[in-house]
């Protein structure tokens, strides 16, 4: 049984990761790599695994510096949204409250970022939980009785699927080389929207 052949995903049972799904976080990493280290050859297409230390031919200190900068409060506010995410989330927010579970340690700056990219969504319709680590997302999702979770990290998707939550793997260069594992792969936000809010369906 998949979302594709059963039609609708109930938006009340759906939640989202933020970085790499809603936020094009690695765009900032790439920009900083260009500006601070002159690594103008680097692009997101070079990020062929989630652990950048394993797939980028750069020193550990440089990668750690760029990750730290990318996730700090100032640069978080500069992250562009993933194309289509704000439009789809604004429509979904009418049908159900929006729940985001991030492995970030702190939720403040990324919550402010969401308020900025979703200006038409009432703030009380947006919940952000910072679980602090990918492994602790499961407990949060179980508590919130979430059935479907959109994430770009394949190890998280595996972990959730084993525990009975249906992962929707958001397509990114860093998860493309992994075996499919039977996951539902989301190509983009237009496709995801068509699984949750197909046109012509009145949710009443
Ligand atoms: Mg992510």
Task: Give a brief outline of the structure.
The chain has 204 residues and is of the alpha/beta class.
Account of the 3D structure:
The protein has 204 residues and is of the alpha/beta class. 40% of the residues lie in helices and 12% in strands. The chain is built from ten helices and six strands. β2, α7 and β3 form a beta-alpha-beta unit. Magnesium ion binds next to loops.
CATH class of the largest domain: Alpha Beta
Number of strands: 6
In the sheet with the most strands, the strands line up as: 1-4-5-6
Q: How many domain regions?
A: 2
- The CATH homologous superfamily of the largest domain is named HAD superfamily/HAD-like
Instruction: Output the helix-strand order.
Output: HEHHHHHEHEHEHEEH
Radius of gyration: 17 Å
Question: Which percent range fits the helix content?
Answer: 40-55%
For the residues shown, what is the average pLDDT? Answer: 92
Write out the distinct hetero groups bound to the structure. Answer: magnesium ion
Main attributes of the structure:
alpha/beta; binds magnesium ion; 12% strand; 10 helices; disordered N terminus; 2 domains; Rossmann fold; 204 residues; 6 strands; 40% helix
